[in-house]
Amino acid sequence: MNVFLTGATGYIGSRVLLALIQAGHSVTALVRDPSRVRAETARLVTGDMRDRDLVRGLAAEADAVIATAAPGDATSAAADNDFVEAVLAGLRPGATLVRTGGIWVYGSGDAITEESPLSPPAIVAWREEIDRRALTSPGIRSLLVEPGVVYGDGAGIPAMVFGGAQLGDPAALQLIGPGTQHWATVHVDDLAELYVATLTHGSTGDRFLGVGGDSPSVASLADVASRRLGLDGRVVAEDPADTVARLGAFGEALLMDQQASGEKARQTLDWKPSRPTLLEVFAAGEYDPS
Questions:
Q1: Does pLDDT of 5 surpass 80?
Q2: Which residues form the NAD-dependent epimerase/dehydratase domain (predicted)?
Q3: CB of 210 closer than 8 Å to CB of 147
């Protein structure tokens, strides 16, 4: 299949690119810096996801579009809206669009599924309308992958646990919030395989939670991080108000208590996440400061 991919130099998209090529697909990657692409067999097009004419033209050439790029700032809503409009204008009837959402749109919950009601924090409240419009667009097969907290290679949100302040005497590692909240997690390589499985086996309108089934508490993560940092497991909670004051809307999202199994993707797509859990990765030293 000829796939048009965005975000091929990013944390998730770079792994999706490799997984697509390994699965035998041909890939056209829209990138701002071709030198950062690790796959020599991809066709690289230099440009930006905000360039409507370029995006529409590349979508028209493709059998499928997989979108993993996002500015990650205040322009994200406008950029995603413009991108979706351009892709929908370019795709041929029967072509496929796989977009990236996120589990945060469901708010807190101890058994989140794709059928859970949406309750997004402010940082992702803009997603709902664009997701709905894309998933219900007539004439194409449109799907949504909703990753949890992505980890692997010492990168992503989990690295923040090791970056907490060391407070008191003896020093203790400061938690992100109270630590009682859980994060639904997924290894970046398992997630990349989910995108390929969604492309191959998903049905129009499907949404799939990209979570590996492990939802550790922030306190359990910080305990391991504290030991890796030589602090003997000592941690200290942070008042949620201080977390929000420090991190803003991002902090509000990190305070949500989310647990999910990702069972739908396993059952529907035969997706088999197999990488070590985040706690195992922490214990193995993958996130230790260099």
A1: yes
A2: 3-205
A3: yes
The yes-or-no verdict on residue 72 having pLDDT over 90 is no
Sequence spans of domains, the chain: 2-152+187-211+261-274
DSSP 8-state code for residue 217: B
Question: Which CATH number is associated with domain 2-152+187-211+261-274?
Answer: 3.40.50.720
CA distance 106 to 120: 6
Distances (CA, A) of 143 to 125, 156, 158: 19, 24, 27
Residue 166's Cβ-count burial label (10 Å; 0-12, 13-18, 19+) is middle
- The string of pLDDT tens digits covering residues 184-240 is 999 999 999 999 999 999 999 999 999 999 999 999 999 999 999 999 999 999 999
CA atoms of 25 and 8, how far apart (whole Å): 14
**Strand spans (E) along 119-250:** 141-147, 149-151, 166-167, 172-174, 185-187, 207-210, 235-236
Question: How much is the average pLDDT of 149-168?
Answer: 97
The rounded distance, in Å, linking the Cα atoms of 94 and 141 is 6
**In angstroms, rounded to a whole number, what is the distance separating the alpha carbons of residues 39 and 42?**
6
Q: How far apart are alpha carbons 250 and 247 in whole angstroms?
A: 6
What is the per-residue DSSP string for 72-87? -STTHHHHHHHHHHHH
Q: Give the percent of the chain with pLDDT over 90.
A: 95
Instruction: Decide: 259 and 252 in contact? Cβ < 8 Å.
Output: no
Quick check: bond before 178 cis, omega within 30?
no
pLDDT (0 to 100) of residue 38: 76
Q: Which two tokens stand for residue 178?
A: 């109270």
How much is the average pLDDT of 281-285?
Answer: 98
